[in-house]
UniProtKB/TrEMBL annotation:
Organism: Cinnamomum micranthum f. kanehirae
Protein's UniProt name: pyruvate dehydrogenase (acetyl-transferring)
Subcellular location: Plastid, Chloroplast
Catalytic activity: N(6)-[(R)-lipoyl]-L-lysyl-[protein] + pyruvate + H(+) = N(6)-[(R)-S(8)-acetyldihydrolipoyl]-L-lysyl-[protein] + CO2
Cofactors required: thiamine diphosphate
EC number: 1.2.4.1
Complex and partners: Tetramer of 2 alpha and 2 beta subunits.
UniProt superkingdom: Eukaryota
A cellular-component GO term for this protein: chloroplast
Length: 410
């Protein structure tokens, strides 16, 4: 392993000279932090501190399409981006664009995983990167998740900034020991001698009949591991911004991507932007109920919102985006305004993100609630292969409409 890591380090040193002399290198100016939240440029924090929660008290329909995708006008960031000069891009291309910009900017950034090299990755996120950067900076590995994840952690300890791709997030269960006992804890168990600036990313979620082993939602598995940050992308805009922020972070970051969102198209800015790893996104302001969601469920919620608005409801929709730590500032301000909360997730109900989020809201904002928090989650069963049964295991838009109607009853 030491030989491999030395080789990676040497490759980074050689690539540095090549990159500095290359006319094609992306010239990345320092990113300015803007004060606006919608469509603004936000700098991801690269320190080792996690945001703490706020504790403020006192009051101041028929069957819908399962794979719904909301229009760009429904997202404030999308709407803001579409008014600027920009380019249309698919979500997997946005991830690749962010990755390539960071590899141009920093020669210590490297990629490793199964088929990430000349094949271009199972979902083409790393397409053509091996040709541009070489086989050591874009390293094809054997089918051994525990080995190459451990190698990536070792590379991060020596000064590199690796991105480890799991061909499917479910396969990373084979590397759970490396991710939990090494990746999350080495900074602490070494007394701060090591930082682990590693990004672990890959596709997951319930797809189109991929079966139980390829439909894993691992958010619930990794949320309890100390030392990890977790984010989930849901649009091309935030996919690129979160990828860049994760690579620049000194913390180990797990970036969750959904297999059904890779071909989602959106216009994003031509100029550089980096999002915060600890900030939620206000998707739709409203007054009657706060709906908290992330990843693919964002689009089920947006489809349900169309029905709810027609029925006279005004839901506020937040893509929490940061799964660990939660953005309790944005969430708390919304709860103080609406006094009702619905959580919609694709994760399992028992021990899922929704359970942790509900606990955090009750602990910090109990006095502002006028109704019990409702949580819609996937059923606690292995995802069936049959398409009809698969749909039954995850939350559908009609269930969201019904839940809001129950919450908003006088």
């Amino acid at each position: 392993m030491a030989v491999v890591l030395q080789g990676l380090g040497a490759a980074a040193a050689v690539s540095s000279a090549d990159l500095l002399s290359s006319s094609k290198r992306t010239k990345l100016a320092s990113v300015k932090s803007m004060t606006g939240r919608n469509g603004s440029v936000l700098v991801g924090r690269s320190d080792r501190r996690f945001c703490g929660g706020l504790n403020r008290r006192g009051r101041d329909a028929g069957k819908l399409t399962a794979n719904a995708v909301a229009g760009k006008a429904e997202s404030p960031t999308s709407a803001a981006g579409s008014k600027q000069s920009g380019h249309e891009i698919l979500l997997f291309e946005a991830l690749r664009e962010g990755l390539e910009e960071e590899m141009d900017r920093d020669p210590h950034v490297c990629v490793m995983g199964e088929d990430v090299g000349h094949y271009g990755g199972s979902y083409k996120v790393t397409k053509d990167l091996a040709v541009k950067y070489g086989d050591l900076r874009v390293l094809d590995t054997p089918i051994a998740e525990n080995s190459f994840t451990g190698m990536g952690i070792g590379a991060a300890m020596t000064g590199l900034r690796p991105i480890v791709e799991g061909m499917n997030m479910g396969f990373l269960l084979l590397a759970f020991n490396q991710i939990s006992n090494n990746c999350g804890m080495l900074h602490y168990t070494s007394g701060g001698q090591f930082t682990i600036p590693i990004v672990i990313r890959g596709p997951g979620g319930v797809g189109r009949q991929l079966g139980a082993e390829h439909s894993q939602r691992l958010e619930s598995y990794f949320q309890s591991v100390p030392g990890l940050q977790m984010v989930a992308c849901s649009t091309p805009y935030n996919a690129k911004g979160l990828m860049k922020a994760a690579i620049r972070s000194e913390n180990p970051v797990i970036l969750f991507e959904h297999v059904l969102l890779y071909n989602l198209k959106e216009r994003i800015p031509d100029e550089e932007y980096v999002l915060s790893l600890e900030e939620a996104e206000m998707v739709r302001p409203g007054e009657h109920v706060t709906i908290l969601t992330y990843s693919r469920m964002r689009y089920h919620v947006m489809q349900a919102a169309q029905t709810l608005v027609n029925k006279g409801y005004d839901p506020e929709i937040i893509d929490i985006r940061s799964l660990k730590p939660f953005d309790l500032y944005t969430i708390g301000n919304s709860v103080k305004k609406t006094h009702r909360v619905l959580i919609v997730e694709e994760c399992m109900r028992t021990g899922g993100i929704g359970a942790s989020l509900r606990a955090a809201i009750i602990e910090n904002f109990w006095d502002y609630l006028d109704a019990p928090i409702m949580c819609l989650s996937s059923q606690d069963v292995p995802t069936p292969y049959a398409g009809t049964l698969e749909e039954w295991t995850v939350v559908q838009p009609a269930q969201i409409v019904t839940a809001v109607e129950q919450l908003c009853q006088p």
